[in-house]
Amino acid sequence: MAMTINPATNQEVEKYPDLTDDQLDRALERAHRAYLSWRETAVERRADVVRRVGALMLERHEDLARLLTLEMGKLIKESENEVRLAASIFTYYGDQGPGFITEETIDVAEGQAVVVTQPIGALIGVEPWNFPYYQVARFAAPNVVLGNTVLVKHASQCPQSALALERLFRDAGAPEGVYTNLFIKADQVARAIDSPLIAGASLTGSEAAGASVGQAAGRNLKKVVLELGGSDPFIVLDEDRFEHTIKAAILGRLANTGQSCVASKRFIVLEPYFDKFVEGMRAGFAGLRVGDPMDPQTQLGPLSSEDALKHLEEQVNDAKRKGAKVVIGGNRIERPGAYYEATILTGVTPEMRAYREELFGPVAVVYAVDDERAAIELANDSPFGLGATVIASDLKRARAVAQRIESGMVWINHPTASAPNLPFGGVKRSGVGRELWRLGMQEFTNRKLIRTLPADVKLEMAAG
Ligand code: NAP
């Protein structure tokens, strides 16, 4: 059952029944049929639809933003930013996408060899609640321009945002079956992937969900893209422009109330600057205005749900029990809704859950290290490898450190962020594949070789 529960009050707002298996099968058939004609539709027309989705998002930005805040507690100004970012992704692929569908010629001794880029079919995308529009845009925009069709199983806690997206595609002129919202249970996703009508699957979410979708795709020998969790390091190498460093650290940790895969989660600071850094962050956390996420003055809103809060609480309590020091926070906030204090932990050791697990909320772990080498070692001592930040005024030094970090993205002097024209994705348990930029359009493609030889070519046994 897909259900809106306002996390600022924990009140149920709206619920929607899940599709039956038969209804799901019919949706898969419609998406497959739509693919057969969508792939033959001129790319300019496909791109127009996607560009129009971006324009409509901007026209409807106030209503769309309010839905995000209602369904997952995002601060209203962050919701507006998300709507703009998602719209910019649709616009980007509408404008640039056709140019990414390339035909590449290979030098050959005789005749001609080209590799053309073609779509592969109907895809299922499984999406998380933390960025309900932006995540879908990353998956849907490039694939719809390419000629694939998409079915989206959104997180069950943001059904109204999911319906709003489907409406945008319909109003932008997408034919039936090009974009389909699916209200289905997590365990029906495997049924969709098992169907011969589905050509590939993409999931953004937790490791457990990623493993489950990866397994279903694997047994069906289908292409999969997985965008999973992260525990991004934020490495501080000097104390130049310290105010900027503290601001970046607070922004990196607290954006989206800390519920971002690329939030800075582990702050790794060279020993001489450690105390000053912890104090700077503490002062920033102490001054936050807690309140209703719909109020533009609020700086710390609720977590996305009561379950999310309980999970974070258990992780912090485990660290406290095992001897971590709580510099500030460390408890839920006593008011209605899923509110948790902005928290700083130090003295975290490998036997604590907070050392290896992703902390999906406003909880920062700060470590002191002796030198740059120790900073890199600690940064890489994580099952995840999504983003990372290096702070230093010596850009050459920062770049050398960036080179040695095991992650899909490193940002120098800025917390990890996202833009349509920058590739996004991770290594290790953060996932496989890339979204955004032209790489985001190359995942679900057939790079077909067409080798042309003269009709009178001498025949030889080919290898392979
Ligand atoms: P989640 O519980 O894994 O849910 C994500 C989606 O997967 C939801 O639609 C969920 O459906 C579905 N799902 C859950 N279990 C499934 C299963 N066994 N089979 C198929 N689908 C399943 O994750 P979340 O809590 O919503 O999202 C937070 C996680 O996403 C964090 O770890 C975060 O770091 C990660 N994330 C990664 C990126 C990235 O780009 N790398 C971006 C954003 C978020 P239901 O809602 O119905 O359970």
Could you explain how this protein is built, in words?
- Helices cover 39% and strands 20% of the residues.
- The protein has 464 residues and is α/β, with parallel strands linked by helices.
- It folds into two domains: 2-228 and 430-450, Aldehyde Dehydrogenase, Chain A, domain 1 (3-Layer(aba) Sandwich); 232-412, Aldehyde Dehydrogenase, Chain A, domain 2 (3-Layer(aba) Sandwich), CATH 3.40.309.
- A seven-stranded mixed β-sheet has the order 12-13-14-11-10-16-17, with helices on both faces. A six-stranded mixed β-sheet has the order 7-6-5-8-9-19, with helices on both faces. Strands 3-4-20 form a three-stranded antiparallel β-sheet, with no helix packed on it.
- The longest helix has 25 residues, at 76-100.
- The chain starts with a strand and ends in a 12-residue tail after the last strand.
- NADP nicotinamide-adenine-dinucleotide phosphate (NAP) binds at residues 126-130, 135, 153-156, 186, 189, 204-206, 209, 212-213, 227-230, 261, 358, 360, 386, 426, 430-431.
